[in-house]
Design goal:
Elements (H helix, E strand, L loop, with lengths): L1 H8 L9 E12 L2 E12 L1 E6 L6 H8 L7 E6 L8 H7 E4 L11 H11 L4 H15 L14 H13 L5 E5 L7 H15 L4 E6 L2 H7 L2 E6 L2 E7 H6 L4 E7 L2 H14 E9 L2 E8 L5 H9 L2 E7 L4 H11 L3
Parallel strand pairs: 3-7, 3-8, 5-6, 6-7
Antiparallel strand pairs: 1-2, 1-4, 8-9, 10-12, 10-13, 11-12
Helix pairs in contact: 4-5, 4-6, 5-6, 10-11
The structure holds adenosine-5'-triphosphate (ATP) and magnesium ion.
Adenosine-5'-triphosphate (ATP) binds next to strand 2 and helix 2.
Length: 326
């Protein structure tokens, strides 16, 4: 696997804009719970973060795309195939690391991973050979011959990754792959995902940890309450944040309050922070940010600092949630 990944690194990378997974108006309900509410999104090639808090609908989205839960409405396409109709073709094309324990614990890693390879259509011989390659790749040593029931959480996660890639799928769904792992284990898992992603696959990684997406992802899909909040390449999302400024002001309580109120009438105030008699405000203008100087002098307050705000994915995430009403 390692050598295969390296061999492919030199190849010309496919266009990142190619959409691999496409859903339109997907609706999934569990009784009265609407887990996906008319969810439409395009997942491009590359490593894509599916980001959202607990209960947002991340796992349901993955399962719906894989045809593992029923969507009552909407369309799904994986490389042009419908997982509900083209069951075998889709199964061979995708790999899946589920969120919860999926390992047969009375098998050892070699038995389990080679079994999964055979289910995906590999011969026993190929499956065994490939099993050892992927177990080497994820860093499982001699313990591969021990029963999975004796494995640590970190080892189980790595074996879950190995079974997802044994048949060399084009598209990988990793549902919270770092779940339960310690910091070092998380780093190792993220490195493995990056290596797999370098070979031009599409990897959809669900997580509620922003920093993980920033470390490995190129594109992010933010979901909450079964709805799409925001999506795009991380770079574009950040560059797209134009006309956002940060101002630090000082003055009387009355002056600061008056300035805040007046600012909110000409700009969208994103955040306000008080710190030892000083207030920091981040706001988005529709154009003329110089008006804030006139406002400040009108309200008798002092501007201590003013300039474009440096935004992180976290800022975008928090703002998106405020807008989404979360
Ligand atoms: N099998 C089920 N039966 C009933 N409700 C379900 C079922 N699966 C999911 N839900 C509900 O659907 C909503 C979306 O759940 P989902 O598991 O997709 O969220 P998630 O983003 O993966 O959350 P987490 O970060 O906790 O894994 C939640 O309200 C959840 O309680
Ligand atoms: Mg989940």
């Amino acid at each position: 696997m390692e050598s295969e990944v390296k061999a492919q690194e030199g190849e010309e990378k496919p266009s990142k804009s190619k959409i691999r997974i496409d859903t339109k108006d997907l609706v999934v309900r569990f009784g009265s719970i609407v887990a996906l509410n008319s969810f439409s999104v395009g997942v491009p090639e590359g490593i894509v973060g599916l980001l959202g808090p607990n209960g947002a609908g991340k796992s349901t989205f993955i399962k719906a795309v894989l045809g593992l839960v029923n969507a009552e409405k909407g369309t799904i396409s994986i490389d042009g195939l419908d997982p509900r109709k083209d069951i075998t073709a889709v199964r061979d094309m995708v790999g899946y690391l589920p969120e919860h324990d999926c390992l047969i614990t009375y098998l050892n890693a070699v038995e389990l991973v080679s079994y999964m390879g055979q289910i995906s259509g590999m011969s026993l011989k190929d499956a065994i050979q490939r099993t050892h390659e992927v177990l080497d790749f994820v860093g499982t040593g001699e313990e591969r011959y021990r029963l999975i029931s004796s494995y640590s959480t970190g080892m189980k996660q790595k074996v879950k990754l190995a079974q997802a890639i044994v048949h060399d799928p084009k598209i990988l769904f990793l549902d919270e792959p770092t779940n339960g792992m310690d910091p070092q284990g998380r780093e190792e898992m993220l490195e493995l995902i990056k290596k797999i992603g370098a070979s031009g696959k599409t990897i959809l990684v669900s997580t509620h940890i922003l920093q993980e997406v920033e470390k490995i992802g190129e594109h992010v899909i933010i979901i909450n309450d079964g709805a799409l909040i925001k999506e795009g390449s991380i770079k574009t999302l950040m560059i797209g944040e134009k006309n956002i400024f940060k101002i630090k002001i000082r003055g009387s309580q009355e002056g600061i309050l008056g300035f805040g109120k007046a600012l909110s009438e000409i700009a969208q105030v994103i955040s306000t922070e008080d710190e030892e008699g000083q207030q920091t405000m981040v706001f988005k203008t529709t154009g003329d940010e110089s008006k804030v100087f006139a406002l400040a002098s009108e309200k008798g307050i002092q501007i201590r600092d003013f300039g474009p705000a440096t935004r992180t994915l976290e800022d975008i995430f928090i703002e998106a949630f405020k807008k989404g009403g979360a």
